[in-house]
Amino acid sequence: MTKLTFKKPFTQQESIPEAGIERAIEVMRSGRLHRYNVVEGETAEAALLETEFAAYMGQQYCLACSSGGYALHIALKAAGIQAGDPVLTNAFTLAPVPGAINNAGGVPVLIEIDENYCADLQHLEQMMQESGARYFMISHMRGHIADMDAIAELCEKYNVILIEDCAHTMGAFWKGKKSGTFGKIACFSTQTYKHLNSGEGGFLTTDDADIMARAVMHSGSYMLFERHDAAPDVSVFTDIKLDTPNYSGRMDNLRAAILRAQLPQLDENCRRWNERYQALENKLSGNPAIQLSIRPEQETYVGSSLQFRVEDLKPYQIDSFIQNCSSRGVELKWFGGKQPHGFTSRYDSWRYLNNQQHLPQTLSILATTFDLRIPLTFEVEDMKLIGEIISDEVGAFLVVPLIHQPAG
Questions:
Q1: How far apart are CA 93 and CA 172, in angstroms?
Q2: Cα–Cα distances in angstroms (integers) from residue 293 to residues 114, 123, 187, in the given order
Q3: Are 181 and 285 part of one and the same domain?
Q4: CATH number of the domain residue 301 falls in
Q5: pTM confidence score
Q6: Same-domain pairing of 99 and 213
Q7: For 21-46, what is each residue's pLDDT tens digit?
Q8: Which among 302, 237, 293, 316 is positioned nearest to 272, based on CA atoms?
Q9: What CA–CA distance (Å, rounded) separates 370 from 321?
Q10: Could you report how far apart the first and last alpha carbons of the chain are, in Å?
Q11: 293 bridge partner residues
């Protein structure tokens, strides 16, 4: 019997909206790609984008950056980190998060995750007590949102500044409140595989005037901060402009033009992602050997990727399972490997951290955690087929006994 296969690439994104393409061409024809290169009476695309994204988030201030990782770096610098300061972050994240902490001069203090891929609150409080950290850079990794009310309470109790990495939760909510509005600062990515696509790029948002003024200066505004509309009054910059180093990480007008056209479509795209996510989730949930995360009712997630575990898979079976899925067109990533592979890496592979923490709970969870992207170039029916293929390949390795009702 011929096995079903899937034919579409997992890395193909939707095209940029026509309005964005047209505006990008206008920017290129003008030659004014640098955000501060404007003619009299003109507002740069980057400044317009910042105003529009601040309004979308319901925040006072927004800075458009060259990348999400850069936004994380200057978030810490703008918040006042000093060399050697400990910074809490969850152990399940992508490499740019500890990289940003290292770049800012901080020392990552890793937090265990729970079976739903969120920061373990008990371990978080323990490490707040033991480390004395003043910063918690929470990574909403792969779109999983922890109990943000409880986290905000812990941060207030231990006087910890909360910085949200919302690279995977742009457009998501916790109890009706937007992800990125719980902490002092939020950072977002517009890298190709995120919810807005400019190839590379990012945002920093905050309601704190001093933090934003420092972030603007860090970004490389020179003395042109008055050209930022989603920034504090110029009086806030009086001393900050002379005391803050320039780390040059601005977004250009070309990428801003591409993003401005996408922003009005974001909420509808979040709905489309969830439609696809739920179709895949429904297929996988029919296989008792597959463990899916529990999405709490307080969370309004954006399902642009899905993670699952197959706890009964033996270590020697994992490569074959991934290869078998790949041979049928389904591209899975594995977060349990000892060696980094592409975008995936385990915390103990970041040896530059010189971190001696051992996190057995995280290692156990990641040992059989698989991940797949859900691009909007896939249809709902595609997700059902992908779910069938994954479930079928799980079944090829595991014989799950049927549960019979006792007679009588």
A1: 18
A2: 10, 19, 24
A3: no
A4: 3.90.1150.10
A5: 0.95
A6: yes
A7: 999 999 999 999 999 999 999 999 99
A8: 302
A9: 10
A10: 39
A11: none
